Every structure is written in C-alpha cells, then in structure tokens.
Amino acid sequence: MKELKGISIWKHLDQIKRILILVLMVSALIHWASFWLIAKLALNRNITVQIPPGTYQNTAIEKGNNKGYMELWGMHFLEVITEFSPSNYEAKANYLLSYASSKGEKSMRPKFLDGLKEVKETNAYQEFHPKMGTWKSTWLTHELWRVEVEGDVVRETSVLNTVTRNKKTRKYYVDIKYSKDGIQLEDFGYVDQ
Question: How many CB atoms lie within 10 A of CB 84?
Fold first, then answer.
C-alpha cells in the first residue's frame, strides 16, 4: 500500500511538473509574440505627417533651426528627402557648384569652399536620421526661403548667400525639387531686393 501511495505521489508530482513546464512555455511564447508585435509596430509605423499643399513664403527657417524643419516638413517628407538627397555636404556642394559654374556664377565658388572648409574642420554636415529623429549640425543653405507643395512633389527655394552692395541686397538662390523620383536641381540664380 505504501509503495502504491509513493507511486501515486510521484505521478502527481510528474503531472504538476509537466503542467508547470507547459505554463512556462506558453508564457514565454506570449512574451515573445508581444515583443515581436511591439518591435514590428515600432519599425513599420506609418508616419503620415506631411506639409499641407500650398506655398510657404519667407519661412525664416535658418540653418541650425532643425525644429523649424521638423514643424514645416514633418517626418514623412524628411524620410523621403534623406532617402534621395546626398547626405554628405561635399557631395551637395560639388553638385551645386558644377551647376552654378555652368550658369556662369563663378562668384559662388569661394562661399561654397569656405563652407566646405568649415565642414571638413568640424566634421559636421547636415544629415537626418529618421529612426532617431535627429540631425547632425550644418545645412547646405543659409535660409529656406520658399517651399511649394503639390502632392508628393516639394519644391524648395533656398538662399545660398546674401550680398549687400551700394545699399542693394542680392540673394543667390537655388531651386531644388524633391520627389519619389529623387532630387533635381531646377534653377540657380539671384534676385535683387
């Protein structure tokens, strides 16, 4: 009788052990599934903040004012812009310089080279990291002058440099178009104010 009782106790303990192992396995599975779901939602989240269609004049978003870029453009467009735009200052500067030279605007070269020298010394060119939502420190142009939005196409007019002579102000600007097809330089020139 004692042997039978001993066997039944072991049987019960074995069943309890199996149930505990099963509970632990189910718990681990639930934890893994919830972690996977949270990770998937975090990585695949849809960012729908976009600039409303229209024209934004004299936005006065100057270089270094990254909060202004975020508020005006929104995360979605910033992801598009960084995907297609060269993130390295030197690449952007060379791209714009070659275009400026083809237009006969040689006077812009020293300004670009000064900016490039500063960037090389400080190792600080502007680059946006969508996952972290942060920027590195220097934008190519000094002032975002005008932004025009039509659907998924955004045209930006940025002031490269402002020169004042004989009480007259001349703004050198560049028109850049950003879209899902990439970055395209549309115009380069100046306006007298």
Answer: 13
Render pLDDT for 146-189 as a digit per residue (tens, 0 to 9).
666 676 666 777 666 666 777 777 776 667 776 555 556 666 66
Asked whether residue 157 falls in the same domain as residue 180, the answer is yes
Residue type, 91: A
**CA 73 – CA 96 distance, rounded (Å):** 22
Same domain, 41 and 60: no
164 and 78, same domain (yes or no): yes
Say yes or no: 37 and 59 in one domain: no
Count the Cβ atoms, other than its own, within 10 Å of residue 115.
20
CB 78 within 8 A of CB 70: yes
Largest CA distance in the chain: 116
Number of domains present in the structure of the chain = 2
Q: Give SS3 for 154.
A: strand
Nearest to 86 by CA among 187, 146, 176: 176
Q: Hey, which of 14-18, 41-45, 74-78 has the most confident mean pLDDT? A: 14-18
Tokens linked to 180 = 């899902």
> In the block, which residue shows the tokens 């972690």?
35
Are 22 and 76 part of one and the same domain? no
